[in-house]
């Protein structure tokens, strides 16, 4: 079994100011730990595109993470800028992940059509946007959990990655 090192960034103006507890980050952390993976970094930021981009770059460049999950900032509100921040730092998109999450969510709620989540790769790190609600974040992550070990193997150019095709 491959150990995957995760970082979680919660994007919320209110949570960053201490006005509301972050529930999505801890919910994602529980799922990651239940899979036997490692949570290496956590942060809460306001919905500020430059700050989000900067932290994504710092975390990727630290070479301490295989996957960075963001939660929040993916809707239609003017303050929802997570997809734009993500696109500004990734080298390549991974549209299949976002498409799979939206397709699965659409079976649960028509509001999934409003999701603007993005997934992509910067260097050897996968960045995945998730919804801001704890329920939506966990449901979306559960959709892609089965492919994450193989994705990380491919990104790390692990010779064993071909055996799982």
Protein model, in words:
There is one protein chain. By secondary structure, the chain is α/β, with parallel strands linked by helices. It has a single domain, classed as MoaB/Mog-like domain (Molybdenum Cofactor Biosythetic Enzyme, Chain A). 41% of the residues lie in helices and 19% in strands. The chain is built from seven helices and six strands. The chain has helices at 13-16, 24-34, 49-61, 82-89, 95-106, 134-144, 148-155; strands spanning 5-11, 38-45, 67-71, 92-93, 119-122, 125-130. A six-stranded mixed β-sheet has the order 2-1-3-6-5-4, with helices on both faces. A hairpin with a 2-residue loop joins strand 5 (119-122) and strand 6. Helix 2 (24-34) runs parallel beside helix 6 (134-144), helix 3 crosses helix 4 and helix 5 (95-106) crosses helix 6 (134-144). The protein is globular. The mean pLDDT is 95.
Domain module count: 1
Shape, per Cα inertia axes:
globular
CATH topology category name: Molybdenum Cofactor Biosythetic Enzyme, Chain A
Reading off the top of the CATH hierarchy, the class is best stated as: Alpha Beta
Radius of gyration: 15 Å
Helicity level: 40-55%
The structure class reads alpha/beta
CATH A-level architecture: 3-Layer(aba) Sandwich
Provide the spatial order of strands within the biggest beta sheet. 2-1-3-6-5-4
């Amino acid at each position: 079994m491959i150990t995957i090192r995760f970082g979680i960034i919660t994007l919320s103006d209110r949570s960053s100011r201490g006005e509301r507890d972050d529930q999505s980050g801890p919910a994602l952390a529980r799922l990651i730990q239940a899979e036997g993976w490692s949570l290496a970094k956590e942060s809460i930021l306001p919905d500020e595109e430059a700050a989000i981009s900067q932290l994504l770059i710092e975390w990727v460049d630290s070479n301490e993470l295989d996957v960075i999950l963001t939660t929040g900032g993916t809707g239609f509100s003017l303050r929802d800028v997570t997809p734009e921040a993500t696109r500004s730092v990734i080298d390549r998109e991974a549209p299949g992940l976002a498409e799979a999450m939206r397709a699965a969510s659409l079976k649960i709620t028509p509001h999934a059509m409003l999701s603007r989540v993005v997934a992509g790769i910067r260097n050897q790190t996968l960045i995945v946007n998730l919804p801001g609600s704890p329920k939506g974040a966990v449901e979306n992550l559960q959709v892609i959990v089965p492919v994450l070990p193989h994705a990380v193997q491919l990104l790390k150019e692990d010779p064993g990655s071909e055996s799982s095709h």
